[in-house]
Amino acid sequence: MGPNKDTSAPVRATANALIGQLPRETWQQRSFAYWAEKQLNANDPWWRPLSSVVVGATTAAMSALLSLGFRKVVVEDLYKLTDVLEADRNRPVVTVANHESTVDDPVIWGIMPRRLRWRPEYMRWTLGARELLYMNPVMNAFFALGQTIPTVRGDGIYQLAVEIGLRKLNENKWVHVFPEARVNQEAQLLRFKWGVSRMIMEAERTPIVVPMYFSGMKAVMPLRQNVPVPRPNPFKSTLYVKVGNAMDFTRLIEEWRVSRASLAPEKAALLDREVRIAIAELLWDSVNDLKAESAAKVQALTEIYDK
């Protein structure tokens, strides 16, 4: 989500206002603004059937890719996510995970059960790089219907993508975020950005947060290759996915809201910053713990199938 921007008087605008400010001079700009508005509201009668086709077909294709293009796929505790999604809940869901390659999403969602794939209300909304995904009118339509929210790296936590993410949370949807905000193929997780913290803090109902960790995608899509295309190897590629226990930030958010209510704007902004940092650190710890718990199994998979 780009560098964390933190000022004492942040500029905030509603999603509708931000869409209204989008340029509309070229065909591409008009197309982008049109799909941003349609995605924000997602209430046209044609939206759900078309979104169902895009999300369902893409997820089914990724499931086939995992079956045919990988030697071994190991998924642990997926029920910790699906049980939350399918529960009779009155709260939205946020998932967070590490980010190994530019194709993590949609590939990793090939693990989702068939019963959910064609029902967009049970599938994730996610934040994706606008400069890579929203490049022409056809891609605008595809990724908008595919529930991928256009994100501009460097525009901070008050950008349109975060506002759309908040709208989806307020509609009780599932929003997935890669809080490292860029592909990271190094051994250490990057510091998590604060956009996801803001969404958790400002959602009307505090989301249920489910951390995830996966390993194997960086071998399929290395950063440094002459032709940037995925290269799964059905004789060698492995993918390991682990889902963690749900996290509940309700008490922290309630305390934050009570505390800031009596503060002057400058002090409230400082408190906001502190809580954003605290939530980002807790999320980082949860994903890093999953990574540590998974290390032995990931190593075993690598040793077995790299021979």
Provide a quick synopsis of the model:
The chain is an alpha/beta fold. It contains 13 helices and 8 strands.
Please give a structural write-up:
The chain has 307 residues and is an alpha/beta fold. Helices cover 49% and strands 12% of the residues. Strands 1, 2, 3, 4, 5, 6, 7 and 8 form an eight-stranded mixed beta sheet that branches. Helix 9 runs parallel beside helix 10 and helix 10 crosses helix 13. The longest helix is centred in the last third of the chain and has 41 residues. The chain is globular, with a radius of gyration of 19 Å. The two termini are 38 Å apart. About 2% of the residues have low confidence.
Q: What is the average per-residue confidence, as pLDDT, rounded to a whole number?
A: 94
Task: Report how far the terminal alpha carbons are from each other.
Answer: 38 Å
Helix-strand makeup class: alpha/beta
The H/E string reads HHHEHEHHEHHEHEHEHEEHH
Sketch the major β-sheet: 8 strands, mixed
> What is the molecular shape?
globular
Count of helix runs: 13
**Helical residues, percent:** 40-55%
What is the alpha-carbon Rg in Å?
19 Å
Poorly predicted residue ranges:
5-9
Strand content: 5-15%
**How many strand segments?**
8
